[in-house]
Amino acid sequence: MARYIYGFEGIGPCHYISNDLRPFITQIVKWRYPLKKLLLATAVAALSVSAAHAAPTVYGKAFLTLDYVSTDYDAANKTDEDTFKLNSNASRIGFKGDDDLTDTTKLVYQLEYGIDVDDDSQQFRSRNTYVGLAHNTLGTVLAGRHDTPLKLAQNKVDVFNDSLFDIKNAGVSGEYRANNMVAYQSPVIVGMPVSFMAATALSETDADGDILVSAASGAKPAVYRDRKVKDNGYSALLAYDKNGVYLAGAYDKDMGANNVNTGVIDNTWRLVAGLDMGKMNMVSGLTLGALYQQSQYYDNYSIVNNNRVNKASEDEKSWLISGKYKVGATPWAVKAQYVNTTDEKGVKDADVNEIAVGGEYAFNKATTGHIYAGQISRDNNKDDLIVGTGIEYKF
């Protein structure tokens, strides 16, 4: 019987094959190269499936400043202070992405956590963290923890955002990130550069009765706040944004934390205007901002001799003006801001004033240096003189 030699990969050294098996082996050899092509196509398809479920985008920010704060107290029994402190300002790390569900709808998600760059006291605090559905034409629905629409209305008029001169440090309320929030974000309304956002923050449980502020002590009656212990919150925003003109109006109802310390605001409404003078073909590099808002606080009350005695709260009013100028072709930008709040937290004559100036130096697209100085004054309380510098890196 004649013998032939066939040698090919996968079988090992050459083997002697009988004439009876020659047709069978010849066919296998013919299939070998098409089989390789099939395996390659299968691998490419597998990679395509993996790409359809792409890994999330990792992003974040490290913003570290060295701040000198000189505090001058109004009360004679308090000692003035001078401190140097290293501050981590809204530093964060996040993961976000999407996954196509249909030709028009995708699942969107984000997991964002605040971190302290300067110490380990408060690592991985939940920031904007949600899951949602986004439709090409109908808008987006989100559920989780997120900035309220009223907070988002601010846009970028606070030119000292995420620093000691952030407007929330000047008595401006409403800068909330709500738990258990369900939100809807519209697409740009057809034919108009207008968008709408609405949200509710669910209390998750029903509970009657008002918040206990302080228990009865001796002859002193208990003090209650005229707000339910558990209540849902609501927030909405309507914004116009085109050709350098930004206008927004927003409203909150019971969106603050529901506890005796901070859950005291009944409602807040806010108006915001921003002008990019460069996009308006007026002054290249110059942006201007303004904000006005009013917050109504819940009243406290006590029951004395079976009668309700109210302690009325004042309406808190805040306004802001700001400006920022990119200095020509240089990496420098200069900025200034003034904020005034009257009757902070509903307390009569508890007024706050902030004035701040600063500069930014763009080393590159990711890295910015900061310098700033200013003062935050609280009537009948204290004055804080602040000077600081820092570095901000985004990735």
Automatic annotation (TrEMBL):
The keyword Iron does not apply. GO terms for cellular component: cell outer membrane; pore complex. One of its GO terms (biological process) is monoatomic ion transmembrane transport. Homotrimer. Keywords: Cell outer membrane, Ion transport, Membrane, Porin, Signal, Transmembrane, Transmembrane beta strand, Transport. The keyword Transit peptide does not apply. It comes from Psychrobacter nivimaris. Residues 41-380 form the Porin domain. This is Putative outer membrane porin.
